[in-house]
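USER:
Make up one protein:

ASSISTANT:
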Amino acid sequence: MKNLKLLLFSLLMTTTLLAQKGYDIGDVATDFKLENIDGNFISLSDFTQAKGFILIFTCNTCPYAVAYEDRIEALNKKYASKGYPVVAIMPNDISIKPGDSLAAMKKRATEKGFTFPYVIDREQSIFPQYGATKTPHVYILEKENNTNIVRYIGAIDDNYKDASMVKTKYVENAVDALLNNKEVSISKTKAIGCSIKI
């Protein structure tokens, strides 16, 4: 019983520490080298023509993430050609969520026809650097002097349940502002989703 209490306490402390760390608006985001569903390793530096990125921590198994799959694909179709491609990162521990394995990710991406990279944070080393706590959790990065500056953190929009009822498209508004050399008016929102499994 004592060991169980210690374990629960350490898990709580780890979760709290992870929630406290991460990037804020204006911070320089780290690059990474993570395995994509096609077996290749992807880095942000590979996208030489990109003006920035719509980086989304997401997964196969969270109902919130699943509800947003079509909208994530639509974001890539709308913005990749304008210089802001989607890069999706699966952050969960697959021993806890086997449905988020690389094989399962590949299957899901094929079924859904994803046109964006879908990479796995296998060592769970990237999502804590960013401060991601949910799936989905979005970070919009703008390329500036060979660095990636965080310009938006949070949710995709204001209605995860029903795309047709969305009133504010946070990600679209942010990217549109950046493409027009304007400040992002709403740069932080609360990410709504499942907690990242560690």
User: Anything to note?
Assistant: The chain has five helices and ten strands.
